[in-house]
Amino acid sequence: MKDLPIQIDEVDKVFHVADVHIRNYKRHDEYKQIFNQLYQQIEDRKTDNSLIVVVGDVVHSKADMSPELVEMVREFLSSLANIRPTILTPGNHDCFTPDHEVLTENNGWVEIGDYVNNKSKDPVATFNRSSEEVEFQRPVRHIKKPFNGKLTHIKGKEIDQVSTPTHRTIHQFSARPDDQYYVKDAADIKENYLVPTGTVPNEKISNINPYASLLGFSFGDGTFVLKNEDTGSCRVQFRLKNESGIGFLKDTFNKLDYDTSFRESENEVTTVCIYSDLAKSIYEYFEGKKQIPWNFLSEDDAFIESFIYGYLKADGHQNESGGWNFVSVDKQSVDVLVSAARTLGYKSHLSFDREIYGNYENSKRQYKGYIRASENHSRTRVKEKNVVEYDGDVYCLTVPNETLLVRRNDKIWVSGNCLENNPDRLDALTPIVQAMGDPNLYYLFETGLYRVGDTVFSHMNFMDDPEDYILAKDIPDKYRKIALYHDVVDRAVTDYGYVLKSDEVSEQTFVGFDSVLLGDIHRRQRVSEYRIEKMEVPKSEVEKYLNAGWEIAEE
């Protein structure tokens, strides 16, 4: 328990403020008028033992704060603190619908809903705006939140984002290579804005890794044959007519100092076989299957580019524009190649919706990939923006780079992540409060107990695990107990009349508190009321109910 240095022995009145949502440039004159009315209302009702508590979301967007917005926030907080000691808590986050996918280092594209629900730690692809490179980073927070209302839908050739209106969205205004990256709320993104879709093009590697290129060629044109399951003895066999492919193998074998024969048959087919440790190494890399594993993405850039070079030599077709088309019956392998190429700065696509079959009845479905080197930055232009009604959970992750490589409906782009609890970045209010240095303003960021005289505030930061929240039963009864929480409570009702659901925070979370000061849901409502309720529970569940604040009734 932390004692706040506020000279009050007995708190007799608390003024509850939440969800102010000061916008970046809009309606500042109206804000000032309403704020002046608020200040006057508090002045008329304050006492010498009263406090002001602001429960989150002072600013509408934490992603892009103009000097005007910062000044208005400073004036707002300063004016409140000048009236009475003011306690401030952080607001919350913005998220995607669960069908958005993130690119993981070891398991490929995973729907963000599944990733969060499974609390995966597999590093995900992010975009470093300084180096303009794709980097895999381990998330520092998994976020899931019920949402009912209007989401923002942004569409373009390579973007199909559906998110909460204030979700951080990365964009640029022009196609100049030196144009900087900006961040706006999704709702404020306009048509013709440019959204990054991957890293900038890398310089072509000067030295091809011969082993990696042989792996790629073997995947494209080789046949894997296991000769002895006990010893792992195997061979990789090629049957080639193309002089380019034959020349590639001869040059590669020479670099690897590997000696084998090239046997040409009467039908002008050249048969080449790889044996010994080299064949075993190739066989084991693919685990004996004609499938590229997703952990291929964890290889270094030179290895990946050399592999792609070898594969396209075997199974690629170059079109007039300089791009390469290729097909495979294995969807994962095409997906891996397209995704890996995107992390290297190539323009790349995978056709899921196009069924391509061979000329025979037993032909399998094939999947088409496309890769093209480009000297330009990878961007897509916003073509359309609208709103959609949504009732369900939304999800996001927090990563140090503050961005995520996202895919939805086969389109890949770079979007912002949730900044909350990011150890490498301050939240929006911390620098403002620190710069103000107002002795009457107290920013409670961490979950914990904070005492003012006879009153204890239990701040429940939505970023923390609800299991770590300090409940009323854990606070000595000699104190008045007040809970502070900014996020969804089960069965709360939104402005549009939707009933929200939360598996983690309900009215039972607040049993025993004298008052609960909430934020996030912009509607005055009654979640629960004082009552006595009796119910029979199995003996095995008694402890759970006691921990939630229930008592055992006398017979």
How would you describe what is shown here?
- The chain is an alpha+beta fold and about 550 residues long.
- The protein has three domains: about 1-90 and about 425-520, Metallo-dependent phosphatases (Purple Acid Phosphatase, chain A, domain 2), CATH 3.60.21.10; about 100-200 and about 380-415, Beta Complex (Endonuclease - Pi-scei, Chain A, domain 1), CATH 2.170.16.10; about 210-370, Endonuclease I-creI (Roll).
- Helix content is about 20%, strand content about 30%.
- The protein contains ten helices and 29 strands.
- It has helices at about 30-45, 65-85, 110-115, 210-220, 245-255, 275-285, 300-315, 330-345, 430-435, 540-545; strands at about 1-5, 15, 50-55, 85-90, 100-105, 110, 125-130, 135, 140-155, 160-165, 170, 180-185, 195, 220-230, 235-240, 260-265, 270-275, 315-320, 325-330, 345-355, 365-370, 380-400, 405-410, 410-415, 440-445, 450, 455-460, 480-485, 515-520.
- Strands 1-26-27-28-29 form a five-stranded mixed beta sheet, with no helix packed on it. The protein has a four-stranded parallel beta sheet with strand order 2-3-4-25, with helices on one face.
- The longest helix has 18 residues, at about 30-45.
- Mean pLDDT is about 85; it is low at about 420-425.
